[in-house]
Specification:
The protein has a domain of 96 residues. The protein has 14 helices and no strands. α8 packs antiparallel against α9, α11 packs antiparallel against α12 and α13 packs antiparallel against α14. It is globular.
Length: 294
């Protein structure tokens, strides 16, 4: 029988291709829970799958009820906070109830951001409104840097930007939300993360601005990404993606020499990767090699 960590890892691995199947088998993890932190981990994947992928509001809320009945739940611990946020997020996204007023300021921010992420591709105008509410709540709460809401907001914002970048086309509202999300991720990773998360947020901004149609702004963030990597003697994997961003922005701005230099630098970084990273980075390198002058 698999352990709890394996069940959750498998759920994250499979959820995009089979969200209903993953939702159905999340119950398999319930007997494996022995500590409060595991409840928080399971609530996170459950909220994502039942909400963002399936819009199965009532199924998700029923699952949270089962989590809340577990004897290992600590009401004032990580699991209790996660369940309050996840429940409030689903209720809000589904228009079933708005329980945010009963939450602590940190949890209120997290619930608003989670609801916004759930609705990003389903109801973008409302998603944008909720995300802006999360930002306003964060500003008014004046939370310390160590508060988990900073990291939660940064991660949610990053995921929002990625989801909208991947759309083949975007409405004006979707473009606005994508840009705001990427900018928010950069702001809050600088508070909650290290230089690594900050440079990855600059990479995200480069990709976002490319999708938004502003290659010059994308180039600025690609250069910032590489500068942070260089200043911290970043690993080959970080250099590889920084040079990818520079190659794509060079291509988009019609700077053939800059594109070629960046592709060559990305290839040199690729050769320094371990075999595991080479496997999943090979497609990116092939895409860069296929670029032709604009």
């Amino acid at each position: 029988m698999p352990d709890f960590k394996t069940v959750v890892a498998d759920a994250w691995r499979d959820h995009a291709d089979d969200p209903r199947g993953v939702a159905d088998r999340l119950v398999d993890a319930l007997p494996l829970i022995s500590e409060d932190a595991q409840i928080a981990a399971l609530a996170g994947i459950a909220h994502h799958v039942f909400g963002e992928h399936l819009a199965a509001w009532h199924d998700g809320l029923a699952f949270f009820d089962r989590l809340s009945a577990l004897p290992s739940l600590a009401a004032n611990g990580t699991g209790g906070a996660a369940l309050r946020c996840c429940t409030a997020g689903l209720l809000l996204a589904a228009r079933l109830d708005d329980t945010r007023a009963a939450l602590a300021p940190s949890d209120r921010v997290r619930a608003s951001a989670m609801a916004a992420a759930t609705l990003a591709e389903r109801d973008t105008p409302r998603s944008l409104m909720l995300f802006e509410e999360a930002l306003a709540q964060m500003r008014s709460a004046a939370l310390p840097a160590a508060d988990p809401a900073n990291r939660a907001l940064a991660g949610t914002a990053n995921n929002l930007a990625v989801a909208l970048e991947r759309k083949p086309s975007r409405t004006t509202a979707e473009r606005d939300l994508m840009i705001l999300a990427a900018q928010t991720a950069r702001t809050y990773w600088a508070i909650a993360g290290t230089w690594l998360e900050t440079e990855r947020a600059e990479y995200r901004l480069a990709m976002t601005w490319l999708q938004a149609g502003d290659a010059a702004e994308a180039q600025r963030h690609a250069e910032a990404c590489l500068a942070i990597v260089a200043a911290n003697d970043g690993a080959p994997l970080e250099r590889f993606f920084a040079h990818e961003a520079l190659a794509l922005t060079g291509h988009a701005t019609g700077r053939a020499a800059a594109r070629a230099d960046a592709v060559a630098a990305a290839r040199r970084s690729f050769e320094q990767l371990d075999d595991g990273d080479k496997t999943w980075c090979a497609e990116t390198l092939a895409t860069l090699d296929a670029l032709t002058p604009s």
